[in-house]
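Teaching assistant's notes for section 4

Start the section by putting this record on the projector. Ask students to predict, before seeing the second block, whether Histidine--tRNA ligase will look compact or extended. Collect guesses on the board.
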Amino acid sequence: MLSKKIQAIRGMNDLLPEQSPLWQYFEGKVRDLMRRYGYAEIRTPIVEQTALFARSIGEVTDIVEKEMYTFEDRNGDSLTLRPEGTASCVRAAMEHGLLHNQTQRLWYQGPMFRHERPQKGRYRQFHQVGVETFGFEGPDVDAELILLTARLWQELGLMEHVTLELNSLGSLEARAAYRETLVAYFEEHHALLDEDSRRRLTSNPLRILDSKNPDMAAMLDAAPRLMDHLDAESRDHFAALTAILDDAGIDYVINPRLVRGLDYYSRSVFEWTTTALGSQGTVCAGGRYDGLVEQLGGKPTPAVGFAMGIERLILLLETLELMPAAARPSLDLYVLGMGEAASRAALLLGEELRGALPELRLQVHCGGGSFKSQIKKADKSGARLALLLGEDELAEGRVTLKFLREECDQQSLSREALVSALPELLAD
Ligand code: ATP
Ligand code: MG
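Reveal the predicted structure now:
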């Protein structure tokens, strides 16, 4: 009987063993950074009630209109695979009283789901690292988030390859007033608007500013700027943020067309972009969302956060060949035994060495086979040393060490000498 092989869902990727070292390297850097800045990890479910995202992200955003994986649970509830992390974070923080009379610095990591057209740097299951802070009015904490990301780029060797773009969306009131000015401008230039933009004219006109259509570029550049219509408080907030960045020596460009795709932002918004990845150039994006907690039924709570796309950062590290050799995992020692008794002894010797030398990266050959086939496996494993246990060695209480990467004669050692000799042989 022939049956069609089942394949992964389009736009959802397997992470294969050869790719995982780079992911682990990146994730390790992030985890370490968060620890050093005093951010606590939060993990929330991948599935939430659909209403959470509809209410927070906004009904007329791309995400809610056409990108969500929404389905009915067996009992008829509408559930959605999370398309982003902020809404879940806010829900969890409210639900567990984390916002009550206290500040929070949280971070998370995990898969997100959006039904977009898959292409390089754009997938249907992708991964984000995100940070959310609650209870800080800023602009000091806005700056902290930017400094934290800048440090990450520095440590990954990416700093020269990314640009920081900033804008302020002002208060909700200022934005509502600006919206009218903007719509009036677009109506004047209605003939130049593409179909998508005409549709957005009534639903989400600010998003038109974000259009990548080159035919609209000149008209959009000449559009009235939100930056010129800010309320006084937002203007001061933004000026204070840029002053900190200036003092810290962080370069940025002010991009008046940076509006972000999610409805909940107010005041500072920022993106880190790169030109090295083609059109999927935003590697990290975030901003302030002071209204969201209240919108979801909590007490008014200032908040600011960001999310970065792990796939895009991994692509960037690959493109620029920025993974340090030291971060590549490899074995120190491959243990092999010739014949049944020595094979059994090899397995136990492996355990003994792991107990005595906890840092040692060691693999014991499994499955028997000829010396030739075992040494081939040892070589393929990437280990620096092979430890041979044959019948003679077993009888004499000795082992033979063979250097797999260096021009060095093999050595015969007593079992007792092994534990002290190995660290020296593997040094540097
Ligand atoms: P874009 O403009 O690229 O569609 P976005 O504004 O939808 O991004 P956010 O919702 O702010 O993105 O998500 C933050 C980051 O997550 C993005 O900057 C990007 O690095 C990453 N990201 C977003 N959508 C995807 C996707 N479909 N595949 C891979 N990474 C993504
Ligand atoms: Mg998008």
